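Look at one record.

>
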Amino acid sequence: VYPLYNYSVAIDDHLMGLTHVLRGKDHLNNTLRQKWIYRYLEWDPPHFHHYGFVSIEDVVLKTSHIRESLTTGKYSGWDDPRLGTLRALGRRGLSPEALRRYWVEASIRPIEIKFSWKTLYAHDRDIHEATSPRLFFVAKPTELPLGCDHPLVGHAPVHPDRPEMGLREVSLPEGENGLYRVVVPLEDLSKLSAAGRFRLKDLANFELSGPRDARYIGDDLSILKQGVPIVHWTTPEGVPTVVHRPDGGEDQGISEPLVMEHDDDFVQFERYGFVRLEVDDEKGSVTAFFAYR
C-alpha cells in the first residue's frame, strides 16, 4: 500500500543490515522520506547511491516482449544472438570480465548514459586478442582452379604473435587436368580481374590466366610491396559453416578443416571478425556466433 511503502522499506533494510542502497535517481524523493524514518528511529542510515537511466540501443531487452516472441518462435531462446541478455552475450562468446570492466569504468553516476557497444567490444578484445586462434572462413565461396607443377601446401600461424601456438597446415586437393582446387570469397574474386596478380595468404603468389582460374608464379613476399592484394582461401572440402549475426542476418560459407577442433572456442575468422564456435561432429559442420570485428 503506497503510504506504507517507504516506512516498510526503511525498516526492512535496517533489519536486514543493509549498508548500501543502489537505486535509480527516480527514487531520490523516496530516499529523503526513508532517511527521515531512520533519523526518527535513531538508526544509522545506509549509504544511498543513485544512478541515471541507461540507454542500450540496437538490442532487445524488454522481458515481456522476449517471452511473447519465444512463444511465437521468433527467438530460439533467451540466448538468441539477436537479444541483449547475458545468455545471448555469452553465446556470442563475450567475456563476463569484459562486462565487469565496462561497468566499473562507467561507474554509478546520477546522469543518463548511453551504453557503448564499441567500448564493451574494446574491453573484450583486450581479453581475447592474445589467445584467440586465427582461422580462415570464406563467405560465399567460389571455386578457383590453380595451375602449379608441384603440390600446394599452406602454412599459417595459429596466432601471428604466439609462435608457440604452432602452425595450421592445409594441403590443396588436386582436381581435373592437374589443377589444384581452392575456394575464395566471391567478393575478392570479382576484384582480382583488375589486379591480375594476387597472393593467397600464407600459401603462394598467383596470376589470373582466365576469369575463373589462375597459375602459380612464385612464393616471394616482396610482391606485396607492389600493392598486390592478399586473398583468404580454404579448400572445397573444408567445413560448412554458418555465422549468425546480432542483426539477425547470417553468412554461409566454408571454414578450414582445423575449425572442427575448436568446439565452444572463441576464435578470429581472419578478415571477418571474432566468433564463438559450436561444432556438430555428427553433421561435420559448424555454427558460429558473431561477436565483433
User: Anything to note?
Assistant: The two ends are 51 Å apart (CA to CA). The helical segments are 5-15, 28-40, 63-72, 86-91, 96-106, 117-128, 186-195.
